[in-house]
Amino acid sequence: MKALTIKQPYASLIVNNYKEYEFRSWNTNYRGKILIHAGLSKYSNLNDFNMYNLDYIYGAIIGEAYIVDSIKVDKEFDSYLHKLNNLVYAGDHVDLYAWKLENIVKYDKPIFVKGKLGLWNYE
Predict the structure, then answer these.
(1) Which CATH class is domain 2-117?
(2) What pLDDT is recorded for position 120?
């Protein structure tokens, strides 16, 4: 099964259905189910996201989603993302790839495992 390691709070934002795009500097042709792994790293100011009442788990698979598209972000799409949610999609995403995630599921119990870079395989 493919897995993707994501920093907190973004991993929790995804599995709680607040974030449907994950950004990478590289494109992927992979379409299908991935496991969402919350890495050990975190965004510098988690207090920015207090309104979402998220639980932050580190170093564990916390859910799953399906990659259904990979979109090269231009200025128009970046503007659309900021209109969707300026906090969750803060920053400049132009020239990055937005991986569209659907069928997102949060796991009741995390699976503690060491993450890896890129899309990696979890057995």
Answers:
(1) mainly beta
(2) 96
